[in-house]
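Figure S4 source data
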Amino acid sequence: MKKLVLLVLMALFVFGALSVVRADNNSTGTPKNKKTVTQVDLNAVSGAVAEREKAITAAYSKLAATISQALIKRQGDLTAAWLKTDTKERRAAIKQAWNDFNKTKKAANKEYKQTIKNIWKTFRQAIKTYKANGNDEPSGLTMGERGDSSLE
């Protein structure tokens, strides 16, 4: 019985000591080992994010419109090609329709990727001026700066 009481008293002592240590760590003083955070203009960063997202949306809309127009043109070219009675002419027209489409799509994707890279570069420069490090968001390299690889 004495051992049990002694064990309970020791446990209470240990838990009490731990709570005092925890209280010291949660004090309002500045931690000695942590870097102090510089003041960040959150409104300016939020504005920069909004501008970035608006520009990305516009770039994607332009890409989609260009590819949509190329698809419509390809449809017309292929329809006309299949109406040709001469086999050599028909094959050449079909091949030309597909080549034109692929050329337009490739150029549109290249322009889109470059635009996205420029948008992210501008954004990173902007947040540096606001003393933000951008670590709260994934890098543009992983989130679209390279463009959508499924569009190639």
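Figure S5 source data
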Amino acid sequence: MLIVDAADDMLMVSWMAGGLTAPDANSMTPPPRQSKGTAPHLPIVGWRERLSLPQLGIATIKAKIDTGARTSSLYAFDVQHFQQDDTAMVRFKVHPYQGDRDRTVVAEAPLIETRAVRSSNGQVEERPVIRTLVQLGDHQWPVDITLTHRKAMAFRMLLGRQALRGRFLVNSGRSFLQSTAKPPASPQESTP
């Protein structure tokens, strides 16, 4: 079910019946394995890309492709834990556009686990982990993502090496090889 509240431009995405289906652990398809001695024929991504998180209602978000980070992370705030039909869930808010605090997406997802993660500044924090689909160019696959509230993050999302392994090669000198540099126009900017 998708609820749009035009008053404050917030979106709510819910995992309720008739809405989106939650990915389960069995849907985690491992990346294809390469034989030793063969060159991988994998698509190339730049050091930053625009991707979408369709099950969370995030049409586009700029992500840093971060091979130094094991796990992917998403800047989220107002994270709330709750139970729904005997399933641990999290509800959270995301500002998908850097510097834009007016557009907020509110999403819900099953909680996979809570994990201790050491951030780039060396501090360890307990983070909720969700599993959701990532869409990058023509490629779509499930990814485990930790939710973190770090205002200082230069990017709203980091796509870590577990999400990249066996799926992409990274060109650290280029950007937006699988996506476009500019986000789509906001609903207020588009013409009918």
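The mean pLDDT is 83. The radius of gyration is 17 Å.
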